[in-house]
Amino acid sequence: MKSISRRALTLYLLIFVFLAGSFLSYYRLAVNADKWAMNKVNEHLYDDGAFTAGDISDRNGTVLATTENGVRTYNKDAAVRAATLQTVGDGAGFIASGIQTSFKDELTGYTIKDGVFNLKRYGKGNDISLTLDADICKAAYNAMGSYNGVVGVMNYKTGEIVCIVSTPSYDPLNKPSEEKEGMYLNKFFGGVYTPGSTFKILTLASAIENIPNLENMTFECKGHNGKGQIQIGEGYVYCSGVHGKIGIEKAFNQSCNCAFAELADTLGKEKLTATAEKAGFNIQMNKINGKISCSRSTLSLGDAKALDLGWAGIGQYTTLVSPCHMLTVISSIANGGTAVEPYVVNSITTPGGKELYTAETKTLGEYFSPTTADKLKKYMRSNVENNYGDYRFKGLEMCGKTGTAEISDSEDAKPNALFTGFSSNPDYPFAIIVVVENSTFSIQTAVPVATKVMTAVKNAYSK
Ligand SMILES: [Zn+2]
User: Fold this and answer.
1) What is the CATH number of the domain that holds 449?
2) 272 CA distance to ligand 1 middle (Å)
3) Same domain, 122 and 249
4) pLDDT tens-digit map of 204-251
5) Does an H or E element contain 242, and which?
6) Do 96 and 223 have their domain in common?
7) Residue 364 gets which letter from DSSP?
8) Mean pLDDT for the stretch of residues 441-456
């Protein structure tokens, strides 16, 4: 009896060891097969040119990256190359989120099922068509001039991203010997910024939803040594102007810090957090096209004192936004409150013409109720009509909000300038975000960039 059970036990152990072993080798294969095969493919792809990676094109078929005689090359126009670099990616993989790195298997034609079968059959990998418009990206890159920062434009109805520019950039065919900080980062996906007054859109949304007499409220921005100020809790929130007694629309038009700090104080942490979280703050967005990670926007008020909450209400304190997420938020306002998922890869096609993948518009849910979205739209439209000027965005019926974010307490530190908004003309359903780093007032830098880019958008879609 005893020996039988011992034998059974030994048998069980053997079976266990066998299963564990095969599980482990299977697991290793699943994890590493890709890498093993890719190393092999890469040798051919980049060394002797026997195999070639497919093309990357923009939405109009303009080739952004291709392989000629086994060598990877890029668009003929140097400005287009630099403008699209962080999205297209480099051949060596320095730009981790670039299409050439994140879609390497698709470009080389390698699949876990067929290995390099397709590559052998066609001698070429698959082609990738992006949603980007090279002309709009070039206009955005030129508009940024020597400033560092980011520009993003997306179709708020479909989620197609038509423009991504992240600076500093470089020409992949003429790479500088000196590296600049941030040149390998696609700041549209991977960056985070203090939103400054662009966050007032969220504070306003929360106020619309939670303060019934908002439209009849009067705020006071009292002058003190030439600056407006309001006492919140133990200290003061300061305003760039002295606005006196004003209502909500004018407070939003003039971006009065006192009014919005007071609103945050009235709302409290929970309500402001609830509005922001409904709009995707503190939540990891899905990967773009299932492959490209996007930074998280954060509003963290757990330890905030009353004064901190006041500063948070005007987009300071510890609040951070991801450009890609913020553009999704703005797009949802334009789209009646419903957010759509942004995407940058439109389709992947085999050399034989078979479509392996086609992106579709996906709804992320309701970021704002339709009523709140409509009111936000009305107030953002009023900002452009009454403050920034419709002449800057002719024919676009633009809605928007600027932000000038202080990023350091140091006296000589320069702020980041932001602008985010959208065209409410249904012929041009596009939303934009612009961040100009180490800049000056947004009206002098971020708004002129937005004007140039939205004009390029209008020209591209008027054809
Ligand atoms: Zn003020």
Assistant:
1) 3.40.710.10
2) 21
3) no
4) 999 999 999 999 999 999 999 989 999 999 999 999 999 999 999 999
5) none
6) no
7) E
8) 97
Distance 404 CA to ligand 1 centre (A): 14
Distance, CA 237 to ligand 1 centroid (Å)?
A: 10
Verify that 115 and 155 share a domain, yes or no. Answer: no
In the reported structure, the alpha carbon of residue 244 is separated from the centroid of ligand 1 by a whole-number distance in angstroms of 7
Q: How far is the CA of 241 from the centre of ligand 1 (A)?
A: 5
Contacts of 432 (CB under 8 A, 6+ apart): 151, 152, 153, 327, 330, 419, 420, 421, 422, 450, 453, 454, 457
Return residues with CB closer than 5 A to ligand 1 (ion): 221, 228, 239, 243, 256, 258
Domain end: 79, 106, 131, which one? 131
Domain-embedded: residue 39: no
- Quickly tell me which residue has 């849910």 as its tokens: 365
- Domain extent for 69: 56-131
318 and 387 inside one domain: yes
pLDDT at 117: 64
Q: How many domains does the chain have?
A: 2
CA of 230 to the centre of ligand 1 (A): 9
Which of 103, 131, 159 corresponds to the end of one domain? 131
Q: Are residues 231 and 247 in the same domain?
A: yes
> Which pLDDT score is estimated for 110?
74
Q: Specify burial of residue 369 (Cβ count, 10 A radius: 0-12, 13-18, 19+).
A: middle
d(CA 70, ligand 1 centre) in Å? 61
Distance (Å) from CA 61 to ligand 1 centroid:
49
Spacing, Cα 254 to ligand 1 middle (Å): 7
| CA pseudo-torsion sign 362, 365, 368, 374 | positive
